[in-house]
Amino acid sequence: MKFDWWLTGICLARVFSQTVTMTYAAVVPLLQQEWGMSAVAAGGIAAAFQIGYAISLFVFSNLADRIGAKPVYLGSIFATAFSSIGFAFLARDYLSAMILYGLVGISLGGTYTTGLMIIAQQYPVIRRGMASGFFVASSSMGYMLSLALSGITIPIGGYKLSFLVTCLGSVLGAIFGWVTLRKTEVPVVKRQAQEKFRKEIVENRPARLLIGAYTFHSWELLGMWAWSPAFISSCLILGGTHGPSAAAYGAYMTAAFHLAGLLASFTMGSLSDRLGRAHVIIVLSGISTLCSFLFGWTIGWPFVLVIGIGLAYAFSTLGDSPVLSAGLTEVVTPSYLGAAFGIRSLLGFGAGAVSPLIFGMVLDWTNPFGSNQGYYVSWGWAFTTLGVGGLGAVWAAYRLRRE
Length: 403
Prior knowledge:
This protein is an all-alpha fold. It has helices at 5-17, 23-34, 39-67, 69-90, 94-109, 112-122, 125-181, 197-202, 205-238, 243-275, 277-295, 303-319, 321-331, 337-366, 380-401. It is globular and about 60 Å long.
């Protein structure tokens, strides 16, 4: 089989543009101490990124239907490079971090659905699940790289060095994106007069179910991503590791979670090409729901067992992402695909913005003495809130299978 240099290039662009995404989650335990933040405040910064990302996805996905996915994608990936550098140098307290991280989310949002739209035009349906899976998997590789770099830099230069090194990756992402797409033809699919938005999306039951499943999926996935590094750090501190070392090791361990997610994206997209989208979503969402209900209660358990459950959690929560994306491209008319992705993204990442906040509220509520020792001792109820999203995804996929 001939090596696909084009897919490799756009995936590398995705990898490096995503290195900014997990750098904040990696240093949350340190920033709560240095900036005097509660769990709700810490979740608020993560929520600012997700809100910016959600709004950006909605606006730019609809814009891509009109002017084309390629110019929107390239403009957004270069904006990501500039905003990331601004975040690295200027985020020095709660307010500045919330504003600047929100701007990063706004910039980065224009590269996701537009990337999927470009891929959908380059690959036939029979290979689209595979290609979408590789694209989503490259996000996981970027998160993994972000956490690994944070683990190296936190003990050396704290959060400032971690921000700087991870944000520089966005510059490389912009370069790879431009080199890959500069000669790629991405036609704009014109909407026909007889096509109606209401018919193509609002009254399209399979599309509604896939969008609903994605919304529930995002609630669970983005909440888990935002808080897993801090949870692992708390497990390490409880076991005798202290200070920056716990945050660094927490970043390393959570990077392994994203490796599991990367493998899931590689394999589950291709598997759904053969077994069907709904079936794969049901199985993966069912497993992730069980993990959400269990994971937070494992603090104090043997660390190897905690990591083992975390790996299963990471695999199952991300594995259905490329399946949901490929499925939507198959049930929506191409000229309305950007609009469909935009609505999906607004709902999904909107839910993903609320999820870390609710998680933080429950975490504060179930730990009345806060994290005065540098860690929380009760995490079970906070993670349980994420399982609600998993149950919703199972329900939506079950209804989709009956269509």
